[in-house]
Write a structure and sequence with these properties.
By secondary structure, the chain is mostly beta strands. It is 11% helix and 38% strand. Strands 1, 2, 4, 6, 9, 11 and 12 form a 7-stranded antiparallel beta sheet that branches. A 5-stranded antiparallel beta sheet has the order 3-5-10-7-8, with no helix packed on it. A 5-stranded mixed beta sheet has the order 13-15-20-17-18, with no helix packed on it. The termini are far apart.
Amino acid sequence: MGPKARRHSAQGMCRAAFALAVCLTLSTLIVAASAPLAAPLTFYSVADATTAAAQPDTPLGGGSTLVVGRGPTSGAAESYAYLTFDLSTIPGNAAVSSALLVLYLAGSTAQIPPVVRVHAVEQAWDEAKIQWDAQPQPGNEVISQTLSLALGDKSWDVTALVQSWVNGGQANHGLVLVPGSTQPFDCTFNSREAQVNTPRLIVEYTLPAPTTTATTGTCLDNYEPNDSFDLAQFLLAGAQYFAAVCNPQDVDYYGITVAAGQHIRAELFSLPADYDLELYGPARDLLGQSLNAGTAAEAVEYDAHTAGSYYVRVYGKNGAFNPGALYYFKVTLSGATWTPAPSPSPWPARRPP
């Protein structure tokens, strides 16, 4: 083969290699873009209240029950139940695949299965002040559900409404349950003040995965930005997650909703560098930390005295990081009854730097 032929052959090989590299890069991008991250969460009501036509000027927001019903004469003694959930921790680009409103039916006077409708609320309201004569009128109907007569959890699919709240299509002023049946009935549900079987919203959503390329070196982390308590991404208990520490200054915060009396176990494992783990309480004070050397797994355990949002903080010791390698973590919740410890937690109460 002459010099000219060899030159043409080398050029052809380079073109082929370049084309292969482009194809591989595009394949990586396509796979990443089509691999959303599931993140189902449970949110508890932050405000709820009954309004009753029979008590038109009485605020009932402090009660341990929520009542939905209708008296013997249509409209003469109706009762509504208002609820609000704080969904600010769900990213605005999330695609909501499922959202179930779950209330615990503690009592009912219905003789046949009653119908209870869910409507969006289009104005702000105050749990301590809302009453029948001063309540936002129900907005668009979200769903109408026929409830069985058996006591226990009852659910309504409110996926479309939650999607609108998350993406900003509609302001989140909560929702209201109103009677949909023509026959008289009263359904009594537990409110948040009941402290057990409280109203909850179970949301499952997906986030677009990061699109990583060799040229940009994007960090393999679905949760950024999450460098503070206020930006913490909330987790599903017992699920395994993965992320990365992108640079020497990167710290990752994650949140989880915990009921009073539950035992928390936070774990950090399969570490590509020397990463440490901390656990913070609803007051954002340090409850525990794990500072093992090297790439040894980390774990923190704690018995939750109070319900609320707890936080996990992951960071590299002395600035350790690896944007191209993942660490794995999960938070497990167990137990239901808290027994006061004989002595307080040994960890000092402080905020992270």
